[in-house]
Amino acid sequence: MPTPPRPSPAAKKSAAKKPSSKKPVIFGAVVVLAAGLLGFVSYRATAPDGSASGTPAAVTATEEDPEVYRELAGLARRDAGDKQAQGRTDAPVVLIEYADFQCGYCGKFARDTEPELIKRYVDDGTLRIEWRNFPIFGDASEAAARASWAAGRQGRFWAFHRAAYAEDAKEKGFGKGRLRALARQAGVKDLDRFTRDAGSAAATEAVGVDRQEAYRIGATSTPSFLVNGRPLAGAQPTAVFTQAIEAAAAEEANVGNAGDPAK
Fold it and tell me: What family is reported (predicted)?
């Protein structure tokens, strides 16, 4: 991630004279801590010694600073019009996924774990899943990300997501013709509009917003996740996700009960 230019001594002196909110300072600290956490769990998730096979550091490193997790939980958009999300906007737990369509581990999560999470937690209102396009493997990843956004414009993001993460989809590539075929498979009705939308400046901007959010919090690999602000990295076993989701749901329930004298 590029390092921002340092302010000149004169700029520092001028800034020191102006009153400012503490929020940017706090958020800056949150970003630094999040970058460390996500960098650490990303390493553990891809470490050659197989340390990702059990309960990962991503789950055990959850008590360092509650302020960090509250700030990161605030990244959940909870937008009813978000085509790249599923689940109730008022769900007590939000899982944010930063992923690339060329990422084999992302495909593993999409095929092996996500359907179980939807069945167990999204359908009963406990969980909301919000997708963020995080293309990091070159032009084909970028094109697939824009195509997924374009499919979402016609309400078919999740169908496109399933098609693009099917067992053999990655090997077939993500060229223009293939992306159009995936859109057709996903039930996108207006394929000409899909092609225009995928090539539009709006698609590039939307993907850029998602990617910059991932970089800003320190994500370095795919898939990376936040579960109510707590970081997880890699296609961990389903049990790791259920543990994290249930812990977050219990925490939210405790907070609600603490605020209600009748409970």
Answer: Belongs to the thioredoxin family. DsbA subfamily.
